[in-house]
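Project standup — Tuesday

K.O.: blocked on the structure for the chain from last sprint. Re-posting the sequence here as requested.
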Amino acid sequence: MKIRYKRPDNKNALSLIEAAKKDMEFTLSMEVSEASGPTIVRNIHECFRKLGDALLIMQGIESEDHVAPIRELMKVKAETARPISLLDNLRRMRININYYGYKPSLDEVKEAISIAKSVFEPLLKAVSEKAHRTRKI
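H.V.: unblocked you, prediction finished:
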């Protein structure tokens, strides 16, 4: 895992948070099918990664992989209906889709959507609040 240190950038973090929110809204509006399944799973993972990247950017850290942002999200204290640790499962499924041609089943796609619906909003709120608090300091 490569990490590069740079100046903390709250403006960039806030942009990533807003992009994650908009992308998640769009992704969850997509019709679930075998054809859309890989895109839905990838997009859901990407939205969580953006939130994790926002946390890292607030600290002046630029990650060059998807592991660090997801790990950073797992540290967030947020009340979620399902465990935040499930995000690592999404990360692994995305790797399989992107690099090994894996086609998720409809049940796996629905599970990814379920994770997003139960975990994304509380994490979005927590990360956004942190960004706004940090901005005022």
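K.O.: great, moving the ticket to review. The radius of gyration is 15 Å. Residues 3-136 form a domain with the Four Helix Bundle (Hemerythrin (Met), subunit A) fold (CATH 1.20.120.330).
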